[in-house]
Write a structure and sequence with these properties.
six-stranded parallel β-sheet, 6 strands, globular
Length: 168
């Protein structure tokens, strides 16, 4: 049985940068410990914007430049950099390339999601995985995800449950 761990957007800007989240910072050691013991492949998603971010639809709705490609904020947090895994750069919440890879090579796998932000990027990528591979078993590890607030985290978790994503 194939297994895949997707670590979503554990980047400096979401942990202690322009969109810092103290709850995301608390996840780092826990995600590292989980990944070190994980018996399967590991992928990372990286929110990836250009200097023209403020002219995009997302930039107009979230007017905080972040994760500008090659900046310090764009980098995966130092504590997770040593984890070997493929990276998927994404200009928006979900990665179509990740979805295509899942459809091609993980359509019957157990796929686990962890990271930040539960209510935007984790939910988007988990839903894409469910869409691209409807027979894969999609799992979100509740205690290894963080969102802007505990309430938005809980709302995202409940939405994913409705879409037959396993919350563990």
């Amino acid at each position: 049985m194939k297994k895949l761990l997707v670590i979503v957007d554990m980047q400096n800007d979401f942990v202690d940068g322009t969109l810092a989240n103290k709850d995301a910072k608390k996840l780092i050691k826990k995600i590292k410990k989980y990944a070190d013991k994980f018996d399967g492949n590991i992928f990372f998603t990286q929110d990836t914007h250009t200097k023209q971010y403020m002219q995009t639809q997302e930039g107009k709705n979230l007017p905080v430049p972040h994760c500008i490609k090659y900046s310090k904020g764009w980098q995966i947090v130092d504590e997770l950099k040593e984890i070997k895994g493929r990276k998927f750069y994404k200009p928006t919440f979900g990665s179509l390339e990740l979805g295509k890879e899942i459809r091609k090579n993980y359509a019957d796998a157990d796929i686990y999601f962890v990271g930040t932000c539960t209510g935007i990027c984790v939910i988007s990528n988990a839903m894409l995985a469910k869409t691209f591979a409807p027979e894969a078993r999609i799992h979100v590890i509740d205690k290894l995800c963080a969102c802007v607030t505990p309430d938005t985290h809980k709302t995202a978790i409940e939405a994913m449950k409705l879409c037959q994503i396993d919350i563990i």
